[in-house]
Write a structure and sequence with these properties.
- The longest helix has 18 residues.
- The protein is elongated.
- By secondary structure, it is mainly alpha-helical.
- The protein starts with a helix and ends with a helix.
- Helix 4 packs antiparallel against helix 5.
């Protein structure tokens, strides 16, 4: 046997998983590979976050947004369509 064949036989070959890639050291690295190494987006205090749940509803940006919306609620509800459009654009 040649030296090259001996070295290849001694090194364990990575197994392929269902998506055709080799073994990963962790599930997190598999998730990053499948997502294209995307980075997480971190919301700033003034950002409005869409979604449900306690943490989203109590995010500072969402609370400020609701205060603004509630300021115009009565006027909006009692208005005709053209004025509602102006209110919406203003907000």
């Amino acid at each position: 046997m040649s030296t090259n064949q001996t070295n290849q036989a001694a090194e364990p070959q990575p197994k392929e998983d269902s998506d055709g890639h080799g073994d990963n050291k962790s599930d997190a690295s598999a998730a990053r590979r499948k997502q294209g190494n995307s980075k997480a987006i971190v919301a700033k205090p003034g950002d409005i976050i869409c979604g449900r749940g306690f943490h989203i509803a109590n995010h500072r940006g969402n609370l400020n947004f609701h205060l603004i919306i509630n300021t115009y609620r009565e006027e909006y509800l009692s208005s005709k369509r053209p004025h509602k459009t102006r209110i919406t654009k203003h907000v």
